[in-house]
Amino acid sequence: MALHTRLKPGKEAEYESVHAVIPPDLDEALRGAGVRSWRIWRDGLDLFHVVEVEDYAKMREVLREHPANIPWQARMSELLDVEDDYSGGDSGLGLVWELP
């Protein structure tokens, strides 16, 4: 699953600092929701995520009300231009091309 998010201006260093160490309970919640890997790249304010997950929709359902994810999302809402309130049917970025 590929995702795109955008930082609020001036929040680049803070975002990277917050992600230097992910809370153990959030790591456990992500893995419990089927996440095998999550990588994030930054280009200016733009963030590009690649998530290896069994079922992205199910992952979002599990994490929506998870006690480890709620404070994390509150923290992310301070840094991201558009907060993820888990209300929509996010399906990630559409694949345009790949090298087979």
Automatic annotation (TrEMBL):
InterPro entries: Dimeric_a/b-barrel (IPR011008), Rham/fucose_mutarotase (IPR008000). SUPFAM superfamilies: Dimeric alpha+beta barrel (SSF54909). It comes from the Bacteria. This is L-rhamnose mutarotase. The lineage of its organism: Bacteria, Bacillati, Actinomycetota, Actinomycetes, Pseudonocardiales.
